[in-house]
Design brief:
alpha/beta, Nucleotidyltransferase, domain 5, five-stranded mixed beta sheet, 10 helices, binds 5'-O-[(R)-(carboxyoxy)(hydroxy)phosphoryl]adenosine, binds zinc ion
Length: 345
């Protein structure tokens, strides 16, 4: 079965072709990505209307390129999958509309996929694919969640952020340090030259006894610190970046360890944009090695949004018979969509 996947929930247009069948995991044949980062940079963040329009411009040329790269005609595609949510409504509508139009054109069914399920299953695209069950740390620009994953479509929410997401904490802190958008990678790069112990920043909810997160207070503490520094901020920016990164990473690390402890599981999967963070990977690797826990990540270029994870999630759902694709080309999107809603026993 050939699955064409389309991702358009935010600021990346992604298209990919995955092949499943036989006994193994679905296999990635080709994928293409167009990042809108440069377009949104001038505005300091994602402008939803510009995002939608750019998805319209990019998605069909990308699909043609992916099919060419895989050397397969569109008519070979068995299912067209798209991100149904969560995300920006207008941006989602582009992917959904194009997927349904392509499906109708070749008389093949379509399937709407949950964006976070895409992230969650993205490590199955790597050479070192995990096995079920595992604890998943989902850390993206909009979500921070710990889940217990027992199989495809069997997701139990263990804890989540009560305010900002980890990626948001990176992005907002970076913005107030004048590091532009997206802030995570920029802040992390600058942090490498700084002293992580230079500023005492809060580790919110670290000892809350549950698996929830809170990052809004940390952002406020970074703002207060930046204001206090005034003109000196320029000189101390690397130290502030390093201290911020250390605070976010410590909370993610400790809560992940707590989730492993609570579930008794010995496998951790890290997914979502913040999963690309170097310090987070180093510290998780060290901690997991100590505890005899196997830790899995998506390939670095598949941590942030992409079409491969959408095609993969669709293929795995179909293979697990969690869902069937449909020839009803009436689509809707779910800008807000809790992942736990997908769960079935
Ligand atoms: O998963 P993703 O591409 O989009 C969402 O679904 O939200 O995640 C984007 C987030 C942004 O907040 C970005 O700053 C963050 O991931 N990010 C990073 C790094 N690379 C991306 N944060 C910290 N360190 C990184 N290396
Ligand atoms: Zn994402």
């Amino acid at each position: 079965m050939l699955v064409l996947g389309i991702e358009s929930s935010c600021d990346e247009t992604g298209v990919a072709l995955v092949e499943s069948g036989g006994t193994g995991l679905p296999r990635l044949l080709a994928h293409g990505l167009h990042s809108q980062i440069r377009m949104h940079q001038a505005y300091g963040g994602v402008v939803p209307e510009l995002a939608s329009r750019d998805h319209i411009r990019r998605v069909l040329p990308l699909a043609s390129q992916v099919l060419r790269d895989a050397d397969r005609p569109l008519s070979d595609v068995d299912v067209v999958a798209y991100t149904r949510g969560p995300g920006l409504a207008g941006a989602l509508l582009v992917g959904a509309g194009v997927a349904c139009a392509l499906g109708a054109a070749i008389d093949k069914p379509v399937l709407g996929v949950h964006h976070l399920e895409g992230h969650l299953l993205s490590p199955f695209l790597s050479a070192d694919a995990p096995g079920f069950p595992f604890v998943a740390l989902l850390v993206s620009g909009g979500h921070t969640q710990l889940m217990r994953v027992d199989g495809v479509g069997r997701y139990e929410l263990l804890g989540e952020t009560i305010d900002d997401a980890a990626g948001e904490a990176f992005d907002k802190s970076a913005k107030l340090m004048g590091l532009g958008y997206p802030g995570g990678p920029a802040l992390s790069r600058l942090a490498q030259q700084g002293d992580a112990t230079a500023f005492k920043l809060p580790r919110p909810l670290l000892h809350s006894g549950d698996l929830d997160f809170s990052f809004a207070g940390l952002k406020t503490a970074v703002l207060t610190q930046a204001k206090k520094l005034g003109e000196e901020l320029e000189l101390r920016k690397a130290d502030l970046a390093a201290s911020t990164e250390a605070a976010i990473v410590e909370v993610l690390l400790k809560k992940s360890v707590a989730a492993l402890h609570e579930t008794g599981l010995k496998r951790l999967v890290v997914a979502g944009g913040v999963g690309a963070n170097r310090l987070l990977r180093e510290q998780l690797n060290a901690e997991c090695r100590k505890r005899g826990v196997r830790v899995h990540y998506p390939e670095l270029d598949l941590c942030t949004d992409n079409g491969a994870m959408i095609a993969m999630a669709a293929a795995m759902r179909l293979d697990a018979q969690k869902e069937s694709a449909s020839r009803l080309y009436a689509f809707d999107v779910r800008p807000r969509w809790p992942l736990a809603e997908l769960s079935s026993a």
